[in-house]
Design brief:
Length: 301
Amino acid sequence: MNQLKSILVGVDFSDCSKTALHQAARMAALNHAQLHVLHVIEDMVVSEFTEMLHISEVELRELTLGRATATLEQWLKETGCPDTTFAEARIGTPLDVILVKSRAVDADLIVLGEVGSSQPGRGAGVLATKVLRKSSCKVMLVNESHRQPFHLVLACVDLSETAQQVVVQALRVATQDKSQLHFLHVINPPWRRLHYLHPDSETSPDFQNHYRANLRHHLEEFVGNVGGLNVRYDLHEASSFGTGIADYARLLHADLIILGTKGKTNLKYVLLGSTAERILRDVPCSVLAIKPPGFVGVGTV
C-alpha cells in the first residue's frame, strides 16, 4: 500500500515543528523509512545580524550552524528518532532548500508543522502552504496538538484518479494507527444549483433520497475492500468544497484530513487556488495532501 521509504521533516524549533518531528519519527518507525531532519536558517536573517553584531558573515554562519546542529541533536534524542536519522542545518531560503532537499533524498513525504515560530495563529503558515503546493511528493502539515497516533481520519473522496491514492493512504494510516476512518464526499446538489429548471422533481424528498443513495453506493464501490477497519461513508452538502471539508472535519473532531490536490470536481482547486486559502486558513486539524499521478513540483528545481 505505497509504503513510505524516505521522509523529510522540516523544523524551525517551534513547538508545532517539534510535534511534526514526533509524527515523522513515528511514521518512519512504522514504515521502516529513512528519516531526514532539516532546519533552514534564513539567509536574510544572517545578513541582518551580521550588521547588528559587527562580526563577519563567515563567523556568524559558523556560529549559527553550530548552535542549530547542537539543538537538532538534542531534539532527535527528545523525540525518539531512529539512530539512522540524518539531521542537517542549512542557511538559505527555506522554501528553496526544503524543495531541493526533498528531491535529493527522493522523499515520499514532507512533514511540517502547520504553523511556524514566525506565524503563530489560526490556519496553516505561509511556508507550509507554499511547500504543500510546490512539492512533487505527499505533504503532511501537523497540528501542534497531534503528537500521538491519529484517532479519527477524514478522507476526502471525489471519485477521481487522485482520490484512489487518497483511499490507499487513508487505509494505510487507519491500519497503522487503528483509527476510525470516515470517507467523505462533499456535494453541491442539483436542487441547490438548478432549482429554477425543475423545481418540483429536484426538490422532492424521493428525488433527493435517490440522489444521495446513488452517490453513497458509488462512494462505497470506489473505496472497495476495507478489511476489518472501522469505516463510515459520509455525504456532506455545501456550496463551497473547501469550507465544506473544514466544517465537517470540525464537526467530527477529526485529527487528520487526507485529500488530493487535484480531482474531477471543484476539489481540483483544493490547495491550488482560492479554495486552498480557505481550507488552509480554517483547517482545524492536521492535513495529508496527496499529489496526482505524474505530478511534477513547480518553482525551485
